[in-house]
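Q: Sequence in, structure out?
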Amino acid sequence: MMNLMLRKPIILFLALLMGFSTYAQDEKTAASLYNEGLALLKAKDYAGGLPILEAALEKATADGDEKIIGLAKKNGAIAASNLGNAKKKAGALDEALALYNKGIEWRPEYASNYRGLAAVSEAKGDAISAIKQYIKAGDITEASGKEKKAAKLYKKARNMVGKIYQAKDYAKAIEAGKAFLSIRENAEVAYYICRANTESVADEEAITYADKAIALSGDTVDDKYYVAKAKAYEKMGKNAEAVDAYKLVTGEKYKAQAEGKIKLLGGK
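A: Exactly. Output:
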Protein backbone atom coordinates (compact mmCIF):
# COMPACT_ATOMS: atom_id res chain seq x y z
CA MET A 1 0.00 0.00 0.00
CA MET A 2 1.30 3.39 -1.01
CA ASN A 3 2.45 5.51 1.86
CA LEU A 4 -0.23 8.06 2.84
CA MET A 5 2.30 10.89 2.81
CA LEU A 6 3.31 10.01 -0.74
CA ARG A 7 -0.27 9.78 -2.03
CA LYS A 8 -1.26 13.33 -1.09
CA PRO A 9 1.20 15.11 -3.46
CA ILE A 10 0.18 12.79 -6.28
CA ILE A 11 -3.52 13.50 -5.77
CA LEU A 12 -2.82 17.21 -5.62
CA PHE A 13 -0.79 17.03 -8.84
CA LEU A 14 -3.55 15.12 -10.64
CA ALA A 15 -6.16 17.62 -9.50
CA LEU A 16 -4.07 20.52 -10.79
CA LEU A 17 -3.51 18.71 -14.08
CA MET A 18 -7.23 18.08 -14.54
CA GLY A 19 -8.01 21.71 -13.74
CA PHE A 20 -5.52 22.91 -16.35
CA SER A 21 -7.01 20.53 -18.91
CA THR A 22 -10.53 21.87 -18.26
CA TYR A 23 -9.30 25.49 -18.56
CA ALA A 24 -7.58 24.70 -21.85
CA GLN A 25 -10.78 23.21 -23.24
CA ASP A 26 -12.85 26.22 -22.12
CA GLU A 27 -10.42 28.77 -23.60
CA LYS A 28 -11.81 29.34 -27.11
CA THR A 29 -9.92 30.87 -30.00
CA ALA A 30 -11.06 33.99 -31.81
CA ALA A 31 -11.87 31.84 -34.84
CA SER A 32 -14.00 29.37 -32.86
CA LEU A 33 -15.89 32.22 -31.20
CA TYR A 34 -16.46 33.85 -34.56
CA ASN A 35 -17.78 30.61 -36.09
CA GLU A 36 -20.08 30.08 -33.12
CA GLY A 37 -21.46 33.61 -33.41
CA LEU A 38 -21.84 33.34 -37.19
CA ALA A 39 -23.85 30.13 -36.83
CA LEU A 40 -26.31 31.93 -34.56
CA LEU A 41 -26.58 34.80 -37.03
CA LYS A 42 -27.38 32.37 -39.82
CA ALA A 43 -30.14 31.01 -37.60
CA LYS A 44 -31.33 34.64 -37.17
CA ASP A 45 -30.53 34.56 -33.45
CA TYR A 46 -29.03 38.05 -33.47
CA ALA A 47 -29.42 38.57 -29.73
CA GLY A 48 -27.42 35.41 -29.08
CA GLY A 49 -24.89 35.85 -31.84
CA LEU A 50 -23.93 39.49 -31.32
CA PRO A 51 -22.25 39.13 -27.88
CA ILE A 52 -20.30 36.11 -29.13
CA LEU A 53 -19.06 38.09 -32.12
CA GLU A 54 -18.07 40.86 -29.70
CA ALA A 55 -16.08 38.29 -27.70
CA ALA A 56 -14.47 37.07 -30.93
CA LEU A 57 -13.55 40.64 -31.83
CA GLU A 58 -12.06 41.25 -28.39
CA LYS A 59 -10.03 38.03 -28.58
CA ALA A 60 -8.91 38.68 -32.16
CA THR A 61 -7.84 42.22 -31.24
CA ALA A 62 -5.76 40.91 -28.34
CA ASP A 63 -4.20 38.30 -30.63
CA GLY A 64 -3.68 40.70 -33.54
CA ASP A 65 -5.74 38.46 -35.84
CA GLU A 66 -6.69 40.89 -38.59
CA LYS A 67 -8.74 38.37 -40.57
CA ILE A 68 -11.09 37.60 -37.67
CA ILE A 69 -11.22 41.28 -36.70
CA GLY A 70 -12.47 42.15 -40.18
CA LEU A 71 -15.00 39.31 -40.32
CA ALA A 72 -16.31 39.94 -36.80
CA LYS A 73 -16.82 43.65 -37.52
CA LYS A 74 -18.49 42.97 -40.88
CA ASN A 75 -20.98 40.44 -39.54
CA GLY A 76 -21.30 42.20 -36.20
CA ALA A 77 -22.55 45.29 -38.04
CA ILE A 78 -25.21 43.16 -39.74
CA ALA A 79 -26.24 41.66 -36.40
CA ALA A 80 -26.37 45.12 -34.80
CA SER A 81 -28.64 46.36 -37.58
CA ASN A 82 -31.05 43.43 -37.33
CA LEU A 83 -31.17 43.50 -33.55
CA GLY A 84 -31.53 47.29 -33.66
CA ASN A 85 -34.51 46.91 -35.98
CA ALA A 86 -36.15 44.50 -33.54
CA LYS A 87 -35.57 46.89 -30.65
CA LYS A 88 -36.94 49.80 -32.68
CA LYS A 89 -40.04 47.83 -33.57
CA ALA A 90 -40.53 47.02 -29.87
CA GLY A 91 -40.25 50.71 -28.98
CA ALA A 92 -36.89 50.36 -27.21
CA LEU A 93 -35.48 53.36 -29.09
CA ASP A 94 -32.45 54.03 -26.88
CA GLU A 95 -31.33 50.40 -27.13
CA ALA A 96 -31.83 50.49 -30.89
CA LEU A 97 -29.83 53.71 -31.10
CA ALA A 98 -26.91 52.15 -29.21
CA LEU A 99 -26.93 49.11 -31.48
CA TYR A 100 -26.96 51.16 -34.69
CA ASN A 101 -24.08 53.29 -33.41
CA LYS A 102 -22.12 50.16 -32.53
CA GLY A 103 -22.72 48.81 -36.03
CA ILE A 104 -21.54 52.08 -37.58
CA GLU A 105 -18.39 52.01 -35.44
CA TRP A 106 -17.58 48.51 -36.65
CA ARG A 107 -18.47 49.01 -40.32
CA PRO A 108 -18.97 52.64 -41.39
CA GLU A 109 -19.56 51.67 -45.02
CA TYR A 110 -22.70 49.62 -44.19
CA ALA A 111 -25.77 51.73 -44.97
CA SER A 112 -28.39 49.83 -42.96
CA ASN A 113 -27.24 51.14 -39.59
CA TYR A 114 -27.39 54.74 -40.81
CA ARG A 115 -30.91 54.10 -42.10
CA GLY A 116 -31.92 52.65 -38.73
CA LEU A 117 -30.29 55.53 -36.90
CA ALA A 118 -32.23 57.99 -39.06
CA ALA A 119 -35.54 56.24 -38.35
CA VAL A 120 -34.90 56.25 -34.59
CA SER A 121 -33.82 59.90 -34.64
CA GLU A 122 -37.00 60.76 -36.53
CA ALA A 123 -39.10 58.83 -34.01
CA LYS A 124 -37.39 60.68 -31.15
CA GLY A 125 -38.14 64.04 -32.80
CA ASP A 126 -34.55 64.83 -33.80
CA ALA A 127 -35.27 65.91 -37.38
CA ILE A 128 -31.84 67.39 -38.08
CA SER A 129 -30.00 64.19 -37.15
CA ALA A 130 -32.53 62.07 -39.04
CA ILE A 131 -32.10 64.13 -42.22
CA LYS A 132 -28.31 63.87 -42.05
CA GLN A 133 -28.40 60.11 -41.45
CA TYR A 134 -30.87 59.46 -44.28
CA ILE A 135 -28.55 61.37 -46.62
CA LYS A 136 -25.51 59.47 -45.34
CA ALA A 137 -27.32 56.18 -45.92
CA GLY A 138 -28.24 57.40 -49.39
CA ASP A 139 -24.66 58.34 -50.22
CA ILE A 140 -23.36 54.91 -49.19
CA THR A 141 -26.16 53.17 -51.08
CA GLU A 142 -25.54 55.26 -54.19
CA ALA A 143 -21.81 54.53 -54.04
CA SER A 144 -22.61 50.80 -54.09
CA GLY A 145 -24.50 51.24 -57.36
CA LYS A 146 -28.04 51.11 -55.96
CA GLU A 147 -29.30 54.43 -57.31
CA LYS A 148 -33.02 53.71 -56.92
CA LYS A 149 -32.69 52.76 -53.26
CA ALA A 150 -30.49 55.80 -52.67
CA ALA A 151 -33.09 58.06 -54.29
CA LYS A 152 -35.73 56.80 -51.84
CA LEU A 153 -33.48 57.66 -48.89
CA TYR A 154 -32.80 61.16 -50.24
CA LYS A 155 -36.54 61.57 -50.76
CA LYS A 156 -37.19 60.65 -47.11
CA ALA A 157 -34.82 63.39 -45.99
CA ARG A 158 -36.34 65.93 -48.39
CA ASN A 159 -39.88 65.06 -47.35
CA MET A 160 -38.98 65.62 -43.72
CA VAL A 161 -38.15 69.24 -44.54
CA GLY A 162 -41.42 69.53 -46.44
CA LYS A 163 -43.46 68.13 -43.54
CA ILE A 164 -41.91 70.60 -41.12
CA TYR A 165 -42.73 73.46 -43.50
CA GLN A 166 -46.31 72.21 -43.97
CA ALA A 167 -46.67 72.08 -40.19
CA LYS A 168 -45.89 75.83 -40.27
CA ASP A 169 -42.86 75.45 -38.04
CA TYR A 170 -41.00 77.87 -40.26
CA ALA A 171 -37.90 78.43 -38.13
CA LYS A 172 -37.35 74.68 -37.84
CA ALA A 173 -38.05 74.19 -41.56
CA ILE A 174 -35.31 76.70 -42.37
CA GLU A 175 -32.91 74.98 -39.97
CA ALA A 176 -33.73 71.53 -41.35
CA GLY A 177 -33.44 72.74 -44.94
CA LYS A 178 -30.06 74.31 -44.35
CA ALA A 179 -28.85 71.12 -42.65
CA PHE A 180 -29.91 69.18 -45.75
CA LEU A 181 -28.26 71.61 -48.18
CA SER A 182 -25.04 71.63 -46.16
CA ILE A 183 -24.61 68.01 -47.30
CA ARG A 184 -26.49 67.70 -50.58
CA GLU A 185 -27.92 70.17 -53.11
CA ASN A 186 -31.64 69.96 -53.83
CA ALA A 187 -33.95 72.44 -55.57
CA GLU A 188 -37.07 71.43 -53.63
CA VAL A 189 -35.35 71.90 -50.26
CA ALA A 190 -34.14 75.35 -51.32
CA TYR A 191 -37.74 76.13 -52.28
CA TYR A 192 -38.98 75.13 -48.81
CA ILE A 193 -36.44 77.45 -47.21
CA CYS A 194 -37.58 80.31 -49.45
CA ARG A 195 -41.23 79.73 -48.59
CA ALA A 196 -40.55 79.34 -44.85
CA ASN A 197 -38.57 82.57 -44.86
CA THR A 198 -41.32 84.38 -46.74
CA GLU A 199 -43.95 83.20 -44.24
CA SER A 200 -41.85 84.33 -41.29
CA VAL A 201 -39.10 86.94 -41.47
CA ALA A 202 -39.45 87.74 -45.20
CA ASP A 203 -35.99 89.06 -46.01
CA GLU A 204 -33.39 88.75 -48.77
CA GLU A 205 -32.54 85.20 -47.72
CA ALA A 206 -35.84 84.12 -49.29
CA ILE A 207 -34.61 85.45 -52.65
CA THR A 208 -31.25 83.72 -52.21
CA TYR A 209 -32.92 80.35 -51.79
CA ALA A 210 -35.47 80.97 -54.56
CA ASP A 211 -32.55 81.66 -56.90
CA LYS A 212 -30.81 78.51 -55.63
CA ALA A 213 -33.91 76.43 -56.38
CA ILE A 214 -34.07 77.92 -59.88
CA ALA A 215 -30.36 77.36 -60.53
CA LEU A 216 -30.45 73.75 -59.31
CA SER A 217 -33.37 73.00 -61.65
CA GLY A 218 -31.22 73.33 -64.76
CA ASP A 219 -33.15 73.68 -68.01
CA THR A 220 -36.52 72.63 -66.56
CA VAL A 221 -37.49 75.09 -63.85
CA ASP A 222 -40.72 74.41 -61.97
CA ASP A 223 -42.87 77.56 -62.21
CA LYS A 224 -43.59 77.38 -58.49
CA TYR A 225 -40.00 78.48 -57.87
CA TYR A 226 -40.64 81.69 -59.81
CA VAL A 227 -43.90 82.14 -57.92
CA ALA A 228 -42.06 81.61 -54.61
CA LYS A 229 -39.54 84.29 -55.58
CA ALA A 230 -42.32 86.67 -56.62
CA LYS A 231 -44.21 86.13 -53.37
CA ALA A 232 -41.07 86.81 -51.38
CA TYR A 233 -40.54 90.12 -53.18
CA GLU A 234 -44.23 90.95 -52.76
CA LYS A 235 -44.08 90.27 -49.02
CA MET A 236 -41.02 92.53 -48.80
CA GLY A 237 -42.89 95.34 -50.58
CA LYS A 238 -40.76 95.12 -53.72
CA ASN A 239 -43.58 95.06 -56.25
CA ALA A 240 -41.54 95.78 -59.37
CA GLU A 241 -39.24 92.84 -58.64
CA ALA A 242 -42.27 90.69 -57.87
CA VAL A 243 -43.81 91.54 -61.25
CA ASP A 244 -40.55 90.59 -63.02
CA ALA A 245 -40.56 87.22 -61.26
CA TYR A 246 -44.22 86.56 -62.06
CA LYS A 247 -43.51 87.29 -65.74
CA LEU A 248 -41.18 84.28 -65.83
CA VAL A 249 -44.11 81.92 -65.25
CA THR A 250 -45.08 80.13 -68.47
CA GLY A 251 -46.94 76.95 -67.50
CA GLU A 252 -50.73 76.69 -67.32
CA LYS A 253 -50.79 75.69 -63.65
CA TYR A 254 -49.64 79.09 -62.35
CA LYS A 255 -50.20 81.29 -65.41
CA ALA A 256 -53.59 82.72 -64.40
CA GLN A 257 -52.34 83.41 -60.88
CA ALA A 258 -49.22 85.13 -62.20
CA GLU A 259 -51.17 87.27 -64.69
CA GLY A 260 -53.61 88.34 -61.99
CA LYS A 261 -50.77 89.32 -59.68
CA ILE A 262 -49.02 91.27 -62.43
CA LYS A 263 -52.15 93.38 -62.97
CA LEU A 264 -52.75 93.79 -59.24
CA LEU A 265 -49.20 94.99 -58.67
CA GLY A 266 -49.37 97.51 -61.53
CA GLY A 267 -47.33 95.60 -64.04
CA LYS A 268 -47.94 95.38 -67.75
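Residues 64 and 178 are 44 Å apart (CA to CA).
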